[in-house]
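Risk register update: the risk of archive-format incompatibility is retired. Evidence:
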Amino acid sequence: MLWRMRTLAGGWLLTLSLVACSGSDPDDALLGPTGHAGSSSGGALGGGGQDPVGGSAGKDPAGGSGGAGLTGGGGMDPAGSSGAGLMGGGGNPVGGSAGKPSGGSGGKPSGGSGGATCVGGEQPARRAPLDLVILMDRSGSMSAGEKWPVVTSALGELVKSLEPSARVSLRYMSAPASKPPPSTCTTDLECGEYGPCLAPFMLCTGSAGGAVVDSCDPADYVAAVVPLTPQAQATAAITQSLLAHKADGGGSPVFAALFGTLQDAVETQKLRPEATTRVLFATDGGEPSGCTKNKPAEVAAVAKAGWDTGRVRTFIAGLGAAEDLPSTLEPVAVAGGSKKVRVMPPGSSVAQVTDAMRAVVPRCTFALPEAASYTLVRRGAGGDVSLPPVGVLAACTGEGYWLDDPQSPHKIELCPVSCEALAGPGEVVVKSACP
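Archived output:
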């Protein structure tokens, strides 16, 4: 999927007014209203296993008690923690209660008392670093025309253009199955993730006489082919891997591939909360096929859980004419927090595809200033515009900003209106002053 990203050059600049003074009370810090509450059972974030949509027990966690699909306990956490799925232990690290917005200024818990000297001045606003998790479709349809060489070249150019603070990983859809299904079957249950059982052939949908084309197990997509690598080394590693692979896969096990990818991405976000983790799924939009869990609603539920609870957006770069891309992709992009599929029409050049993919690079997410209290101001041709704290994204109705985690913030993200304003001429600075 492609996302249009805007660079800082020639764009609006965000102004942060910082005040760092002694004896700041953490209760006075801007924490915003209550975040998303954690969950240990049911639905996309609930009970026991891999399915974020519904069910109970085993690998299908839709409902039952105890386990937790994407975010609660008892799912498929390869690290072996007691709470598994995308988020681990039974809850949402983003959620929890929080204080009320203080009005014009916000701040970070000070972590201590006394002795600090108020520091004033002006400095550039610093964007949060990016952890980019790429999922590359290598199904057979990707070999048509120039799809594979163009998109693989564009991915290489995208990685090359990222900031040095970025890190990148790469995996492919499909991956080989670590646990193949039975070669024959009499019931759907016997096929597990590779169902249903196809009568009268008595074969599981995801296999052909025991020869598995694609893995339908999300666990096979958790580990990246190119693990998370600093940008300076990632360009060569990503390029070499793409050159070594071909578009010779079978079907489109989108549910399993996206689930495993997001599980790794959410864990990455937890381990580096000061960064922004995003998933980029480049595909020509083949209909999900060949696995028990692969319905469009199930795929969208995975993307939704990754964004709503894991705070990881899923971007989709659609290779092909808009009218040819399946309508199933748009709900996944919307549920995943990226609003729409970024369409790359036939005949697009490497430069055009690269530019479209840059939408995945965040331009409105900034590192939390190292200050006990601060105010945000957007400075443009029309002068300075004060940005009020709104607490959470859902409260954005105009200009403003929200924090990634009201309880323990690491990043600032602008509301959509303020973010759009950054597309015009202007600058981003951090302005600090003492009372």
